[in-house]
Predict the 3D structure of the following.
Amino acid sequence: MEEMSWEELQEAMKDGKTTALLYAGAIEQHGPHLPTGTDTILGYALGQRVAKILGNALVAPVIRPGLSEHHIDFPGTFTLSYETFCKLVEECCVSLARQGFENIVVISSHGGNTDALKAFTPYVSKKVGDKTTVFFLIPDQKSHHESTQRFMKKTNATLGEMGAHSGLSETSMVLAVRPELVDMKRARNGLSDDEFYLPENVLISQMQAFTHGIKAQIDNGTLGDPRRSTKELGEEMLDSYAEEQASQIKKIMATLEKTKHKKKMM
């Protein structure tokens, strides 16, 4: 949207593109080798792919900064208070609703935003009124885990190597879209123990990060091992995750349409 003129946007909406994809990213450290805008960059990359699959959507400006208190010990990290972040999300949604978007899909491209968005988005939906539907796309952990396993088999990578922040997965995706911002000479192993990333340990590991900060877990800020990252893997991962998100959105939209139809019949 931000690379289009208002007339182009108006024409797109008249043509049926009345769904806005509102990603919430971050400006925070991503190890010694990735830019601090990684989550924002990947928000745009995923958004563009999802919009193309849906056919009726436009990508709104990615929200940033986000909730990055757990990264604040590293230079270049910006973080908002919960109150400021939630107000920013609310006012972005209100702006989109006032301009006539019928659906606003809020999606997190930064893990630190997820819980706040899950709790706050229903309030925003009530705030904008009946003409616009706002919903948060809850990450499908099962599909994500299955995708990770598939890419692990393909690359012979370990779970710890894939990582959760600046590891093989995330680095590959940034290489696919903004390779000039990745300094692979600086890429080095971080916290890459498989046990840390097991599904049954993820929430505990995440809570420790939110409580004590990432730097207490690993000095270089990298959760994973990025050294075998490739552009080709990144392209595949972005396409796969975009398909997952688009599929979720379609299912939710279909359910919403059924609900609207039932209300009209009552």
Observations:
- The chain has a mean pLDDT of 95.
- The longest helix spans residues 231-265.
- The first strand starts at residue 19 and ends at 24.
